[in-house]
Sequence to fold (94 residues):
Amino acid sequence: MAEEKPDIAWRVIGGLVGLVTAWAARKVLGFAWTKATGKEPPIDTESPEVSLGEAIGYAVVMGVGMSVAQIVVNRTAKKRYDAWKSLKQVTPGQ
Fold:
């Protein structure tokens, strides 16, 4: 069975949601990193001044955190968009 191609409105909304989510998640995860470790997040994880453990830990936290944020926000946005779209398609008198 062929999958439906997403409409242009969802593509635009999904792209904007993705950008905002990535920005916000990075800010929140950076804040959490600072609170948990007492140090600012490493800017360049390849720098010799950043320990290997810190670089790997930061990469894991950012990778998992960003992925979870994207999944949660995209699923929520898609549900709301589909609900809005179905309300728009309902004709009066049904």
Observations:
- The chain has a mean pLDDT of 84.
- The CA atoms of residues 78 and 84 lie 10 Å apart.
